[in-house]
Amino acid sequence: MFKKFRKKSPWILHYNAGSCNGCDIEILACLSPKYDLERFGVINTGNPKQSDIFLVTGPVTFRSRERLVELYTQMPEPKVVVAVGSCTCTGGVFRDMYNVEDGIDRYIPVDVYVPGCAASPELIIDGVVKALEVLEKKTKAIEKPRKLFKEALSKEGIVDRRECALKVGEDDAKDTE
Amino acid sequence: MLTQILLIAPFLFALVVVFAGVRLRNILTVAFVIFLACVSLLHLLFINEPLGYDLPHEFHTLFFFFDALLLLYFLYVGIAKKDTLVASLAASQIVLYGAVKFVGGGEGSHDLFIDNTSLMMYLIINIVGGIIVVYSLKYIESEEFGRLKKNGFIAVLFFFLGVMNFLVSTDNIEIFFLLFELTTLCSYILIGYRKDAVATQNALRALWMNQIGGVAILSALLLALVSYKTFSFELLIANIDATYLFPVVFLLIAAFVKGAAIPFEKWLLGAMVAPTPVSAILHSATMVKIAPFMVLKLSPAMSVFLSEAVMLFGTFVFFAASLLALSKNYFKEILGLSTIALLSFMMALAALGTQEAILAASILMVFHALSKALLFLQLGILEKEFHLKYVNDIESLMSYSPLVVFFIVFGFASLTLPPFGVFIGKFMAFESFAAGIQESPVFLAALLFSALGSVFLTILYFKVLTKVFVRDMRLGTSKTKEIATTYKYTSWALSILLGAGIVWSLERQLFGMWEIVIPALLIAIVPLLLFVFILKNAHRVKEYNCGEKEEAVLNMYYLHTPPALQKIIVVLSLVFLGSLFLGVAL
Amino acid sequence: MSEILLILLAPVIGGVLYGFERVVRARMQNRQGPPLLQPFYDMMKLIDKQTLIVNPTHALLGVMHFVALWAVVAFTIMGGNLLYIVFLHLLASLFLVLAAFSVKSIFSHLGANRELLTMIAYEPILVMLSVAFYIQNGSFSIEAVRANPSALGSLFFLFLAFLFVVQLKLKKSPFDAAKAHQEIVGGAEVEFSGLFFEFVYMALWLEYVFVYLLLLLFAGNNVLLGALLFGVVFLLVNLVDNATARVRMEHLIKIFLGIAVSLAALNLLGLSYV
């Protein structure tokens, strides 16, 4: 009965996991009067305990990865993770560099990927709306940990990273929803 | 008849306790305390109107003898410890006493005079004082004294109870002086009981500062004998002439000294090095209550100027002492300064003299004694069981001993929140000030000082809970430490008495029923909820620290008073005191 | 009878008021703002979250804060003793402070200490307000105030001082250092989540109801004046909130003790001797 209110009042937690700030600026622009996310009831709470949507930017740097997971665990279920910007999805222009971890889906399960460098506010709003649809379907049970990456297949010593990511739904057969 | 028992019994008990073995001493002390408490309660039932007794003439000679011995002993202490202040004040007291005896004459009313104020003080002294004596039985067990010295501690406490009982029943200013100086003697002995350097130094300081009060009483007595030809409080007040109020002013100065008003607060703060029962009984619950007691006695004699001046001074000290307490870390100093603040507030109300103000002052006296005794007992537990003196050293007390935390929070709550007695007293005080505002702007200043002082005290108490109330979930319940039975029972006794106070105020209709019941329910539900709803099924999560893994290190806030402001406060209080004399002279 | 109904519906009224205020603030900022009933959508969503608590003391004291504040609003609606209500409100705030002190979190303690400091700011003014009404009407009772004609003319300085208090109690700029969302992440409310945050959230709505009820006292028995005052102050409070930056705690206390308390004291002097 309360489920339909989940999408009427999504509170976001915005975290910068080593980003260049471009996507952060775009997210803050969403909250400004021109794009106005607050008309959907969105409030930017800085507090994981009081938020539903985890908006992350930045390819995960060495120092931010522990804090990323800490913040994710402090959010109560049901929650969704929205990866904003190409860096957050796959590493973007910094892919394969020595100091980044190529995106957050190595550490926390991501529900919506918003591409772009920097992702435009309209795209971000689109992503948040899609996240709300996903949020409606989630349960209050703690999300079971699932493998985010499968073993890399090596062809002649070259690893094709495009084969590494699990497709959405693959290996999810054991989840109930 | 009942009163004679109350006056003589504690001295006998003191003698008996000195020579008893440990178990006998414990049993006897508890029995004596219960006996004294019952006798003081019986007084309430049987004595309905003021009583006066006369003592036979031999007693007067005996008292003169004791007095002379006492003053000579003070002189000896001053010379032996090479303390000029003690010696010179003792010498001046001897001279003044000689002058008093030389002038002589004067008529008095009765030597013993028991009225409602005395009955109320009996309750405070015997019940609260008695509970503290029982507490000290366990407390001194862990001190490094020999058996005789430990028994001596209890004996001196009983002796002190006897002196206090006598002090609040006497009408003769000369006997009052003797007893006043006997309480100073008790203070000196008990503060210096541990015999280390700091203790001896603070004991000497307490001695000379209290002797200023003695000098003041003797001057008042001398003036009363010379101009009013009386040595009795009642006759002095009855025949008071509004143009010659000097005796009253000197007696008020003595009250300020005993109540450690600024600028006399150093002796009380220094006295906090004494064993905790001493701090509890002498310096917050019982002995310092002499100050508002004296002002209550003198309030019919005060002229409009004097009562307004004392009211202004009292509320000013209330404000200043609370402000100073905000910068302290030593737990006992925090409680000591808040005692000074509330005592001055009681003195201000007593000086005001209206019926509501006097009722407010009396309520404050009784309930403040209960609350402060409870708090000091918890400090003693912290000192003995957990070896904690400073607030910032307290870590995770909630996991080690939730009971002590409950008592501390209860004690602080009973000093600030409805429906407890101290709150009711403060509330009636505000109503009295509001009623008087249209007479004189002094009431507005008093109201402002009281409002600010009261909010400073609230902040003070709850800021201390920063460290006390933290519940560290990582420690779990296995760390709980049991505290000794005596400590538990005495704390519960005081808490139950505080609760009984709520029922009493409900019955007396000091407030509407809902105004008392609802906050009582709100406060009572909290411990109930915490024991019933432990929320086992809820998931636990870490505190928010921006995702960092380090543990938070927490400290209590200080609100530092700059030294310049402290000097201004002392100067202002001296100006106030001076203006009392000036105003009365004009 | 109608008073009992009002008391029971107080959180709902507060919620509608809070929602309306969000819309007004948004329109002032030239944007659309959330729907009117947004606080109730928030409430439903918060009830539906997984219960995560730090420790039971913290969660339960948050609930007691809400209950105590409801009791305060109940006393105000029933017309009790104004001075007593001021101190009962202190009890409600102290529940929140105690709750915040029971967790080992830096932001929580920071917020609670700041909350304690703000008491220095508003308590004296509320006490002087009660005394002023006492001088006007001869009694501390709110019923007497509501029965008599409006005292706004003779209590004008006190009204100005009270506006400071309104800004502080509703946790709005420039006096929102105790909540300080961007600075200390909500202060005392930081460790609440889910259902228990809902109680603290509703406590904020009740605070609105309480403060505006006190405001209506200045209108006495004149309902029209009350509505006018409410409208003007509502807009003014939101305008100042949108237009000013946050003030630091020391400055907050200096502003209150310097300006607001002086205004109130001046008014009291004037009431007694003019």
Give a topology summary.
The complex is a heterotrimer of chains A (177), B (586) and C (274).
Chain A: E1 11-16, H1 22-30, E2 43-44, E3 53-57, H2 64-74, E4 80-84, H3 86-90, E5 112-114, H4 121-137, E6 154-155, E7 158-159
Parallel strand pairs in A: 1-2, 1-3, 3-4, 4-5
Antiparallel strand pairs in A: 6-7
Chain B: H1 2-18, H2 22-46, E1 51-53, H3 57-80, H4 84-103, E2 112-114, H5 116-139, H6 147-167, H7 173-191, H8 197-228, H9 233-238, H10 246-258, H11 266-270, H12 276-285, H13 290-298, H14 304-325, H15 331-352, H16 355-385, H17 397-400, H18 402-416, H19 421-436, H20 442-468, H21 485-507, H22 513-532, E3 539-540, H23 563-585
Antiparallel strand pairs in B: 1-2
Chain C: H1 2-28, H2 38-47, E1 52-53, H3 56-78, H4 82-101, H5 106-137, H6 142-147, H7 156-169, H8 181-184, H9 194-216, H10 223-243, H11 249-273
Helix pairs in contact in C: 1-3, 1-9, 1-10, 2-9, 3-4, 3-9, 4-5, 5-7, 5-11, 7-9, 7-11
What does this structure look like?
- The complex is a heterotrimer of chains A (177), B (586) and C (274).
- With 177 residues, chain A is an alpha/beta fold.
- In chain A, 24% of the residues lie in helices and 14% in strands.
- Chain A has 4 helices and 7 strands.
- In chain A, the strands form 2 sheets. Chain A has a 5-stranded parallel sheet, sandwiched between helices. Chain A has a two-stranded antiparallel ribbon with strand order 6-7.
- The C terminus of chain A is likely disordered.
- Chain B has 586 residues and is mainly α.
- Chain B has 3 domains: 113 residues; 133 residues, no CATH class; 234 residues, no CATH class.
- Chain B is 73% helix and 1% strand.
- Chain B has 23 helices and 3 strands.
- A two-stranded antiparallel ribbon of chain B has the order 1-2.
- Chain B starts with a helix and ends with a helix.
- The mean pLDDT of chain B is 88.
- Chain C has 274 residues and is mostly helical.
- Chain C has one domain.
- Chain C contains 11 helices and 1 strand; from the N terminus they run H-H-E-H-H-H-H-H-H-H-H-H.
- In chain C, helix 3 packs parallel to helix 9.
- The longest helix of chain C has 32 residues.
- Chains B and C meet through helix 19, helix 20, helix 22 and strand 3 of B and strand 1, helix 3, helix 4, helix 5 and helix 11 of C.
- Strand 3 of chain B pairs parallel with strand 1 of chain C.
